[in-house]
Write a structure and sequence with these properties.
alpha/beta, disordered C terminus, Rossmann fold, 46% helix
């Protein structure tokens, strides 16, 4: 998978999956624009990407704000003239708790980042790709987009919505040489899964981790690099006729049935 000369935009680039994917694209020769709300994490990812010898820039942006999304799209186009690959990845987990205890503003925040943020990315990146008559987009959904997950109603709703947007958008643009797919990670070794472990069992987060690992047929969490490999595949010519679908990276958990108590990134 050679991405030499390709222009790649990644949101949530400061997080575990975003950073691993940025490094994978850097190793494959891409030019990168990294986007994150957390400037410190974003700059750390930028330094690591540049250490690989890749041309890269960082832009702080809130993916739930139209002006910020337009700004990162404009920066990519102004500097490189195009966007070949877009990893629409930014997201948050929120607080764990039953739906009847979820505050309205907390629900709105998760939907705004995880679902509206993906919509805005599609809304403003797709016209660029349609004009150039080509491009690939990968949205980050979750195994929680496929099944329920106790205590994460807003997160689950947002990720189900991401799959809906993926399917709908793919049908709108397939005739223009543009592909839209999604990845559905299960538990991944990142800050987000550690947050979930601590919320589920504040006094003994390792017990929560052990319970989640026990429910995974492979017996372990995925690594961010394993998710990144799937993203690169979906952005490559190897998946040239793949669009409107998703790939699950969860160690077989969703295939075993039942609810999933995991988020990622």
């Amino acid at each position: 998978m050679n991405f030499s000369g390709k222009v790649v935009v990644i949101t949530g680039a400061g997080g575990g999956i975003g950073r691993a994917t940025a490094l994978a694209f850097a190793n494959a020769g891409a030019k990168l624009l990294l986007v994150d709300l957390d400037s410190q994490l974003g700059e750390e990812s930028l330094a690591q990407v540049r250490a690989r010898g890749a041309a890269a820039e960082f832009l702080r942006a809130d993916v739930s704000r139209s002006a910020d999304v337009r700004a990162y799209v404009a920066k990519a186009v102004d500097e490189h003239g195009r966007i070949d690959c877009f990893f629409n990845n930014a997201g948050i987990e929120g607080k764990v708790g039953p739906i009847y205890e979820v505050e309205e503003d907390a629900f709105d925040t998760i939907i705004s980042v995880n679902l509206k943020g993906v919509f805005l990315g599609l809304r403003h990146v797709l016209p660029v790709m349609l004009k150039q008559r080509g491009g690939t987009i990968v949205n980050t959904a979750s195994v929680a987009a496929l099944v329920g997950s106790p205590g994460l109603s807003a997160y689950v709703a947002s990720k189900h919505g991401v799959l809906g947007l993926t399917r709908a958008a793919s049908t709108d643009v397939a005739g223009y040489g543009v592909r839209v797919n999604a990845v559905c990670p299960g538990p991944v070794q990142t800050r987000m899964i550690r947050s979930l472990e601590e919320q589920r069992s504040p006094k003994n987060p390792e017990a929560a981790a052990a319970a989640m690992r026990a429910a995974i047929p492979t017996g372990r969490y995925a690594t961010p690099e394993e998710v990144a490999n799937v993203v690169l595949y979906l952005c490559s010519e190897l998946s040239g006729n793949v669009t409107g679908t998703h790939i699950t990276i969860d160690g077989g958990r969703s295939g075993s049935g039942g609810a999933v108590g995991a988020v990622h990134r």
